[in-house]
TrEMBL record:
Protein's name according to its UniProt entry: Chemotaxis protein CheR
Stretches assigned to the CheR-type methyltransferase domain: 13-265
Source species, domain of life: Bacteria
InterPro entries on file: Bact_Chemotaxis_MeTrfase, CheR_C, CheR_MeTrfase, CheR_N, SAM-dependent_MTases_sf
Coiled-coil features, chain-numbered ranges: none
GO molecular function, one term: S-adenosylmethionine-dependent methyltransferase activity
Length: 288
């Protein structure tokens, strides 16, 4: 009952700023999930919070609640929001030591397979996918391989399909390629045009690009290799376990799982299902 003694009415206790922020974030993410089917609710909160506030300022609003209104009523705003939560950070042959180790330790195993299926989960704008296509081409395996490149971000996928990148990145990409064990002139794999480069069309011939959300979508094939690097660092423990379950379900017996430098199979409930092929480069083999 409201107090009215002494001539005033008792006022409700307002939530603190941190609590209010948490409520706003939960309402925003729940609304996005219910209306659009994109589930960010189990993303790691510190990184998610930074990206949400960055987008609040980018949309010229003052609060997360105001951002929610725009996102739910404006499809274009929603698409910008999704892109802001999955800002791609990638480059060709990123972490060259990983690709060199892959050549040395995984390629000999792949040679024994009649057909190779590789899934790049969270492929972003495609640089890692084309790096794999080049590596397999040089190892004589590309013709019997099919690469599935998936991401939840439609804009990133479209750029990946086009295979067009800024010419200013080629110096770094060439350096990465050589350190990754590249055997040719890297310039053979692209054509320069104005301020961009276009990757050779034959690199795309065995790549299938498709939308896939690791948080909500299911397994869609059996794979000999799954790459998912520096994606799960943005997930909380619950979502991370869910994705590891999805990968284990999708890997063939003795299939290879490749994680990012800050990620590990250890301390998950699937750790006993793998053996380590290379602890430094986070390459694991499914044994169960």
């Amino acid at each position: 009952m409201k107090a009215i003694e002494h001539g005033y009415e008792e006022q409700p206790v307002l939530a603190g700023s941190d609590e209010l922020e948490q409520i706003e974030i939960e309402l925003l993410l729940d609304g996005v999930h219910r209306l659009y089917g994109y589930d960010f609710r189990n993303y790691a909160l510190p990184s998610l919070k930074r990206r949400i506030w960055h987008h609040v300022h980018a949309e010229n609003v003052l609060t997360i609640s105001a951002l929610q209104e725009k996102v739910l009523h404006d499809r274009a705003c929603f698409e910008r929001f999704v892109y802001s939560l999955s800002i791609p950070v990638t480059e060709m042959f990123r972490d060259p030591g990983l690709f060199l180790t892959f050549r040395q330790k995984v390629v000999p195993l792949l040679r024994t397979y009649p057909y190779i299926r590789i899934w790049h989960a969270g492929c972003s704008t495609g640089e890692e996918v084309y790096s794999m296509a080049i590596l397999l081409h040089e190892e004589g395996l590309y013709d019997k391989a099919r690469i599935y490149a998936t991401d939840m971000n439609e804009r990133s996928l479209q750029q990946a399909k086009e295979g067009v990148y800024d010419i200013s990145t080629m110096k770094q990409y060439t350096k990465n390629y050589l350190e990754a064990g590249g055997t040719r002139a890297f310039s053979e794999y692209y054509t320069a045009k104005y301020n961009s480069v276009i990757l050779q069309p034959y690199l795309r011939k065995n790549i299938i690009f498709a939308e896939h959300n690791l948080a909500t979508d299911t397994s869609f094939n059996e794979f000999n290799v799954i790459f998912c690097r520096n994606v799960m660092i943005y997930f909380n423990d619950e979502l991370r376990d869910h994705v590891h379950g999805l990968f284990h379900e999708s890997l063939s017996r003795f299939g290879i799982l490749v994680l990012g430098s800050k990620e590990s199979i250890h301390f998950t409930k699937y750790s006993d299902c793998y053996e380590s092929l290379d602890r430094v480069e986070k390459i694991y083999r499914n044994i169960k």
